[in-house]
Amino acid sequence: MESTSYILAGDVGATKTILALFRLESARLVATAEETFSSRAYAGLEEILQEFRQRHQVRPTHLCFGLPGPVVAGKAQLPNLEWKDGVAADRVGEAVERAPVTLLNDLEATAYGLRLLSPEQFVVLNRGRPAAGANAALIAAGTGLGESILFWDGQEHRPCASEGGHCDFAPRTALEVEFLQYALAQLGHVSYDRVVSGSGLHLLYRFLRDTGRGEEPSWLGDKLTGEDPGAVIAEAALTQKVPLCQQALQMFVGIYGAEAGNLGLKALARAGLYMGGGIAPKIFPVLTGGEFMRAFTDKGRMASLMAEIPVQVVLDPRTALLGAAFCAAREAGWHVNTEQRG
């Protein structure tokens, strides 16, 4: 089946927003136009839509957006993006000739997108023993930390929106206790979102530097003030082998693994835990070093259960966009082939 109508999907992030038009070809979603925008350069989603539609004058029948924040009654406030009025489905609909609009949490959208990926878009961290008919889970570190549980309903996995990344950070070691005290003095409240994220890596780095656990090269200090600090620290750890950056990244990976394990345990994710977001693929060599899975499985009497949970890194950066497109297509009544692409 092919469709001459279009849907519009969006992956709204605190750093960038991706919009795309899709049509249906042979039961598959095909993007006919796609653009990326700097989220902070605009006052809201309506402005981005207006600019996109000026270049692509197609009226979509349905729209869906994944958003980095809780969606309640068709409205969302985005904690890591300072859009004064947030996002509201009715306002967005008015900007596109009152077309139906669906708003999802971004991890909910990503979870839907998983079903459209091919096996090549996953890299295994832990093979485990995947259980049929069990729950799965998704965690994604980027500008913030997102989490979702994928409940098995007897036929398929149903994503559940969550703001679990904003739960209180719980230190596991004496070093992490000291870090928590440092972070509390700066932030007041310390959630995993504040630690397992790009800004969190920078916070870990500053803690290690300020407590005398390493020297900061002068060239690195200059880069940290002029570029994205989290990206600079990760690159310096992986390529320049700067000891202070390596320590920060190793600490980051351990905390990431611990919280991923917390999510896997709460969801009883015996079908698998997926790692989305922009950070995991970029630091994959460190993720495979052992610290992540040590922290993931370090759950006392549940350690043997945790070792059986499969863990995979999602490589496709468009997964949330595809998930939003899938949901818009479903609302439009399109049948989309959800067998893995190949």
CATH class term of the largest domain? Alpha Beta
The biggest sheet amounts to: 6 strands, mixed
**Domain count:** 2
Considering DSSP H and I runs of 4 or more, what fraction of the residues is helical?
Answer: 25-40%
Order of strands across the biggest sheet? 9-14-13-10-11-12
Can you tell me the overall shape? globular
Judged by helices, strands and strand pairing, the structural class is alpha/beta
The number of distinct helices, counting runs of at least 4 residues, comes to 13
For the secondary structure, the number of strands is 14
> How do the helices and strands follow one another from N- to C-terminus?
EEEHEEEEHEHEEEEHHHHHEHHHHEH
Concise overview:
The chain has 342 residues and is of the alpha/beta class. The chain folds into 2 domains: 7-113 and 318-331, 2-Layer Sandwich (Nucleotidyltransferase, domain 5), CATH 3.30.420; 118-315, 3-Layer(aba) Sandwich (Hexokinase, domain 1), CATH 3.40.367.20.
Which descriptors would you attach to this protein?
alpha/beta; 342 residues; 5-stranded mixed β-sheet
Description of the structure:
By secondary structure, this protein is α/β, with parallel strands linked by helices. Helix content is 39%, strand content 22%. The protein has 13 helices and 14 strands. Strands 9-14-13-10-11-12 form a 6-stranded mixed sheet, sandwiched between helices. Helix 5 crosses helix 7, helix 7 crosses helix 8 and helix 8 packs parallel to helix 11. The longest helix is centred in the last third of the chain and has 25 residues.
